[in-house]
Amino acid sequence: MIRALSAKFITSSPSIKEAPSFVTSEVVFLGRSNVGKSSLINALVNQKNLAKSSSTPGKTQLINFFEAEFCEEKEDSEKEKFKLILVDLPGFGYAKVAKSKHDEWRKNLDEFLKFRSDIRLFIHLIDARHFDLDIDVNVDSYLKSFLRADQKILNLYTKSDKLNQSQKSAIMKFDPSGILVSTLSKSGIDKAREAIINHALGR
User: Fold this and answer.
1) Is-contact 70 3, C-beta < 8 A?
2) Burial letters 85-123, b for 16+ CB under 10 A, else e
3) Burial bucket for residue 186 (CB in 10 Å: 0-12, 13-18, 19+)
4) Residue among 66, 55, 72, 82 nearest 29 (CA)
5) CA geometry: angle at 148 spanning 143 and 152, to 5°?
6) HSE of 13, CA atoms in CB hemisphere, 13 A
7) 3-state secondary structure (DSSP) of residue 76
8) Cβ-count burial of 7 within 10 angstroms (0-12 exposed, 13-18 middle, 19+ buried)?
9) DSSP β-bridge partners for residue 13
10) Dmax over Cα atoms in the chain, in whole Å?
11) Cα atoms in the Cβ-side hemisphere of radius 13 Å centred on 183
12) Are 66 and 7 in contact (CB under 8 A)?
């Protein structure tokens, strides 16, 4: 059983050049705007308002860093604590800004994802109600195009509480290694937290 002990906001950066190095494994969260990134991060660390969500799609323009501490309780009553850096990226697909701004975002995020050496895990959040959109398929292909041997991708399908059982089964057939989550019903959160920790620590 893995529990969240604490979490705090560290800093925001517009690009990899301004981002400090933490010498700690980093977990990056990315997905379309309004897919529920902030809500999921809050659920994973058991806080309500750590990551701020915006009612305006695409408003988040910075790379946000959080430090989270977790504890794993083992069968022999031993406890192991470890920290991870959680990275919340701007959502894609919605922002109403000038093309020049879009291009700047794309360049900054591309450099961060490809060249940030401490990233161990990419969390691709996908709306469970629309799980095979071209934009998400393209993101998956993009990440796989530069994935290093020490990195992994984990797909989390959000808002799964809005699906019936046959719809959930269709997603698992489409992506057997994906995890269905809902921040509303809390289903899948513990499973997602454990998968994230294990992947990030190279287990």
Assistant:
1) yes
2) bbbbbbbbeebeeeeeeeeebeebbeebbeeeeebbbbb
3) exposed
4) 66
5) 65
6) 17
7) coil
8) buried
9) 63
10) 57
11) 18
12) yes
Distances (CA, A) of 104 to 30, 40, 62, 65, 112: 17, 27, 12, 20, 12
Q: Is 121 helix (H, G, I), strand (E, B) or coil?
A: strand
| Tokens at 68, concatenated | 């989270």
Which two tokens mark 42? 């809050």
Question: Per the structure block, which two tokens stand in for 49?
Answer: 């308002």
Helix 189-200 to helix 37-44 angle, to the nearest 10 degrees? 80
Residue 156 CA, distance from chain mean position? 8
pLDDT tens for the 203 residues of the chain, in order: 899 999 999 999 989 999 999 999 999 999 988 899 999 999 999 998 898 765 544 445 789 999 999 999 877 778 899 999 999 988 876 455 556 666 777 788 899 999 999 999 999 999 999 998 998 999 999 999 999 999 999 999 999 999 999 999 999 999 999 999 999 999 999 999 999 999 998 88
What amino acid is encoded at 136 in this protein?
A: D
Identity at 122, one-letter amino acid code: F
